[in-house]
Specification:
Elements lengths: L1 H10 L2 E10 H4 L6 E2 L4 E7 L4 E5 L8 H11 L3 E7 L16 E7 L9 E10 L2 E8 L21 H10 L10 E11 L7 E2 L1 H8 L11
Length: 217
């Protein structure tokens, strides 16, 4: 919150914080409404030494800023992960067309060749198709042989992402891993608000009935 107060002074915004105790299902509604641009963050304690952070971006989300910056201040590690099923070929008029991506970005307190990023591994879909990239220091828990797979989407999978997180003490897709002290920070902007939806509305526009929701946390 002290960091957000500094950015408020710089950009003329106002951020308020609300603290409470809860589980992940109890805490996630604190992000509503989902909107563009995002204006809320949820921090939640986990059953480990890590804290989790979520944001309320609709279509495009961003936790890279706090996850990348705060390790330099707190002298700790930060981890930014994406696990998004590809919805880019959805043709329904009301569908949210989101390009798929699986990414693992590990940050630390020291400067590196790429800001303070220790390691990045990811596959992502874009208008030109799927791409794989990796940079930084290879970590001992990585399944590097998979990076040579002919099919790009097989080079870094949700199971690999889950395994890498487990090596760091994070049970990524276990709902019960996230519980305890919570903070929702809400920033009032001077610009006009963009499109917004509730979490339930966003799910309906993604047509997720046949997709396991535990992989969308």
């Amino acid at each position: 919150m002290r960091w957000k107060q500094k950015t408020d002074q710089e950009f003329g915004t106002q951020t308020e914080g609300r603290y409470f105790i809860g589980s992940l299902p109890e805490a996630l509604p604190g992000l509503e409404p989902l909107t563009t641009p995002l204006d809320r963050y949820l921090l939640i304690e986990t059953r480990s030494s890590w804290s989790a952070i979520f944001s309320n971006g609709l279509g495009v989300n961003d936790v890279a800023s706090p996850v990348g910056y705060l390790p330099e201040v707190l002298k700790c590690r930060g981890l930014n992960v994406d696990c998004m099923p590809d919805r880019s070929k959805m043709r329904a008029k009301d569908a949210l067309q989101i390009y798929g991506a699986i990414r693992f970005s590990l940050y630390g307190p020291e400067k590196t060749d790429w800001l303070n990023q220790i390691r990045y591994v990811g596959v992502a879909n874009d208008v030109s198709g799927w791409e794989f990239s990796a940079r930084g220091k290879v970590q001992p828990y990585e399944e590097t042989a998979n990076y040579e797979n002919r099919k790009i989407v097989d080079r870094f999978t949700p199971d690999m992402l889950e395994s890498y997180c487990a090596a760091l003490g994070i049970r990524l897709f276990d709902e019960n891993f996230y519980a305890g002290q919570c903070l929702v920070s809400s920033t009032k902007r001077t610009t006009s608000p963009g499109p917004s939806m509730s979490i339930a509305e966003a799910k309906s526009h993604l047509y997720l009935q046949s997709i396991s929701l535990d992989r969308l946390i």
